[in-house]
Specification:
With 82 residues, this protein is of the alpha+beta class. The chain is built from 2 helices and 5 strands, in the order E-H-E-E-H-E-E. The chain starts with a strand and ends with a strand.
């Protein structure tokens, strides 16, 4: 099973992102010292990955909480607001 992790600049940002991704069973991880992130398990194939990425883009665009720093399959990506 693969995971996708989205970095967050604060606990509050991680909580908002977690709420936006609630359909995908996200988990807020981290600490004040190490920083926060939202982690998701990707279990539904390519369609699931696309749905998660679309939800991240929608959140970053609507909340201006971006850009989002995404770690997936050992690669780092930056998701900018549309």
């Amino acid at each position: 099973m693969q995971t996708l992790t989205v970095g967050a600049s604060s606990f509050e940002v991680a909580q908002r992102l977690s709420g936006a991704l609630s359909d995908f069973q996200p988990e807020v991880i981290g600490s004040e010292e190490d920083g926060y992130a939202v982690r998701l398990s990707l279990v539904g194939g390519d369609g699931h990955v696309v749905a998660v990425l679309n939800a991240i883009v929608a959140h970053v665009t609507a909340e201006k909480d971006g850009p989002a720093r995404v770690l997936f399959a050992g690669h780092r990506y930056t998701v900018h607001p549309e």
